[in-house]
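Hello forum,

I keep getting stuck at the same step: I have a sequence, I want structure tokens, and every attempt I make locally crashes halfway through. Rather than fight my setup again tonight, could one of you with a working pipeline run this one for me? It's a single chain of 403 residues.
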Amino acid sequence: MKVACVGGGPAGLYLSVLLKLQDPSHDVTVLERNPEGSTYGWGVTYWQGLLDKLRARDPESARAIEEHSVVWNQGVAHVRDLSTRQPGDEGHGIGRHKLLEILAARARALGVRLEFECAVTADDLPDADLVVAGDGVHSALRTRHADHFGAELTPGRNSYVWLGTSKVFDSFTFAFVETEHGWIWCYGYPFSTAQSTCVIECAPETCAGLGLDRASETDGLVQLEKLFAHILDGHPLIGRAGADGGSPWLTFRTLTNRTWYRDNLVLLGDAAHTTHYSIGAGTTLALEDSFALADALAGGDGLPQALARYERERRTALLPQQSAARLSAQWYENLTRYIDLPPEQMFALLGQRHSPLLPYVPPQIYYRLDRAAGQLDSLRRLKRWLGPRIARSAHTRALAGRK
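Reply #2:
Ran it on my machine without issues. Output:
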């Protein structure tokens, strides 16, 4: 099979690796519009489950990824002048640049052609049996057939900015700062022995009240360094190199598509779906797309059947992640509901923000229910049964109210 992967992100590169491992005679090319090594982004997070799947598919690249990752097993939350630290699941961080470097080297070693500074337009598709659109949330290949794919972008409410810092956090770090214009908070995690990612988020009225939406990136960084000085320990925040000087603040948009393929063109990763960054699953879900697509193509069916199977399996697998991401984003959008709880309770509910029951139960009652459920299996089962039903009922009422 001749395959062209448009977009040199983790999903496209790893798909090319998997296809070559399945059959070295596959003719696979990855086409990336940017120069090699010019990727924007700091660290990405993943969890042990992904590493296990990578080991099962390609131990060599998995070993390199693990060797260049940092690990944490605690979370810390700072609220005003109070802090709480709790044990958690083992998390991993790796620089996006390093991850792409590892996957590109592995792909080349297996015989994949990598072509950088190669812009593919929707009117000039590569000549291939299969064209994989891994060209991101603004995919030109998907947009060319917008009526067919039925893409829908749903904006969130809050504003955010993605930054780096030379402060190396020793755990996944949350910091919530109260200002005269409302709350602003950050998520920080290490991705190397020298740097961490620092995502900062706030409500739009807070962003406007602080003037962050109008400030240049340089002035905005100075202001944010003052607000988060208590966790940065004198280290700077780092913006995007070569930015055009405009405001770096964004609003996250959740992307869904009615279908994921058209003839021999198939969507992969952010071109197919996005999930809110607060669950830290974007790279994992993109890589899992590549697992599923490679498996479907190896199944022995024709291309239409393989692409239909890929779409069906990934849609089903994504449902709980998309629900968790939606609830997580809503938790932060309703931060004032939780922020005045004692820090250990607030942090516990931060960890429970994916629960469909939490938005409908008073926070302190939910906290006590959750602690009791941890000791009584019957309460645990009731909580799992009740949450989705309440959430579906509320969602139905909300849709009816819009009509």
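The mean pLDDT is 91. If your local run keeps crashing, start a new thread with the error log.
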